[in-house]
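Sequence in, structure out.
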Amino acid sequence: MKKWVATVLALVLALGLCSVSWADSDGASSGNLGEVYVGWNNGNDNNDGTAADKAVRTMTKAMELVKSDGTGVVYIVDAVPINQYFFGEAHGDSYITKPVTLKGYGDNKLSVINSLALPKVNGKVTFENFSFDGGATFNIYDSSNTYENLELVISNCNFTKAGGGCVYIQPKIKSLTVTGCTFAGVDGASTQYLIWPKLAKEVTITNNTFNGGGKVKGAIHLGDGGAEAMNATITDNKINGVARGVTMAFATGKNDTVSIDNNTFTDVTEGAVVLHENMAANPTAKVTYGAGNVLDGTTAKEIVAKKGNNGTAVDAAKIVEAPAGSELVNNGDGTYSVKPAEQKPSNNYYYYSPSTTTTDTTKGSPKTFDAGVGIYAVTAVLSVTGMAWVGK
């Protein structure tokens, strides 16, 4: 009898282990799905999330199902009516708990309204193919260090009501990348910047279009009180209808570096690049202003150096590095231009000296041919010329 009971228990245990193994091989059960679909309107958390018609309803469930290695994609398949569903409470805890790509499903960009919370994630979180229709989307004022390992990427998105705080991130993050996006300015943004990462260590803003419509103070603001140096790359953007193109306010004496190249500034009223007055006291940043930048429309001021409270202007010559073959020119009115370097005459000259028979091409060393040699050469030339005339 005891042997029979032992046999039954062993069999039950074996079946239990098999069940665990089968569950681990199922991506939906173990959180190994490469793609998960979420639909607030038609989804159900009892679904497996493997297709648009099998979408789960909440982001919490999607995070349980998607891979944790950063390669997973969560597709949002229908309209997002409230920010609490998509991200969590505004400026509070996020529902995004893993490195992941969040992508609007379908050919059209999916509309998202209201402000969003920033995910506290160690790694990359990408937002792709969304139309952010709120005035303050990534408008994050939390000053804690809980985001310092976040790599935030915003790709191929529209900001249809681009006012203050479209991408305003006050806390420290590891990196911010904004690429392939369009910003359309609205009323009430005359004192606002569309992208302002205050404490990001790495910033890449490339291939975006900013249409301020004359309603926005600035397209991009870098720095302002960061405890660590920022490295920023601003390339291939079209910046239209704002007062300031790129503003820099590195005021803590860190060795911040900024590369600005291949951007087109159109109808930018105050300056394509503005060096904020806070930089007058500690001009330690290094800005490379490339030859590929273009001023278009009514944009006339290339680099503007603001004055600090004590009346001292930012010394642009200590900050801006002109590209090879060009130089930074002070226009005398607080503005600077980058122009082709002036071509100076050659320093190689020949001087006559009757005391030596050597040659020297260094200016200031009067050494050339001996007078006798010179006379002989002239005589030889005249002789040959005379022979030519006689021959004729």
